[in-house]
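Task 17 of the worksheet. Students: predict the tertiary structure of the chain below and write it out as structure tokens. Keep your answer in the requested format; marks are given for formatting as well as content.
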Amino acid sequence: MGIIAILSSPSSFTESDEMEKIRAVIAAGSGIIHYEVEKHKDIAEALNRFLQVEVDAIVILGDRALTSATFEHIVEKKLLKEADTPLAILPAGDNNIVAENFGAVQPEPHKALKELLENHQQGILKDRIIEYPLIKLEGVRGVGYLYGLLFCAGEVVKKKTLFLRKISKKGLWHHIRNWLDIILLIQSAYRGAMGTHRLDDAMRINRNQRGAVVGHFFMLLITTLDKAFWGVSIGQTRREGKAHFISVENTRTAILETGKLMLRGKYDGIDHAGNIIAEIQHARIILRTPFILDGSYFEADEKGELFVTITDSLKFIKLS
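Model answer:
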């Protein structure tokens, strides 16, 4: 059995004893190389070390700063490209939405790690490898650009509980919880769409160099993953090197019709005014409101202009 590498960020778990539990799980295992990183430069050092010892997989345990920075090092510095090492993203708070997309069912990181290490010992991780391209987002305030897998903007990003909620195990209660959350979200959005829209909330969207569309949106979603939040499937077939694009105007009709699709569990089937589902390779978005990338909140720089492009594909591990 090969070596599993773990890249963790203790600063992601300062409000609990979770980091100590993670260390205890690692100490009880074998064939593990573990790096705790605090600074951006530490990630490159860790990845180079992992490359030298030819690890079977790299486990990422940390918030947005760790995940996005790891993607950046791999793409920008061509690290691990030849080794083709798969990544496992475990729940760590604000990246729960991505971890859940990869099949995470354990709400606590140390339990998710323990389960993954057991699967590695059984030799079944190699059968769970899938490949997704990354989204590169340029024009982000304070950092310039970021890499991720799921971008979301519009009125829906004001619902922080949607992006920060804990992962739960699959089952009847899980589905009931999702349906209730969707109903509450649609009810709230439907009432809000009846009011006056603020000019500052308007967005300008130009996808694949087509003519720009200006309007108010309940949701703008760009992702290379197969599902969005709450496990709702995109449904649409995504071709290589492209991302799913879904936009929902902030009108009562568009919100209500989208809610029906969400309750059905699949976005595919959008065929009504105010809703678009398509594929894109790049997009230009002008907005003055916060947006989400992989579960974390960001803002555009002073120009308010974001450039979205689909870049290198990486291999990931389905957790279940």
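Marker's comment: The chain has a mean pLDDT of 90. The CA atoms of residues 191 and 252 lie 8 Å apart.
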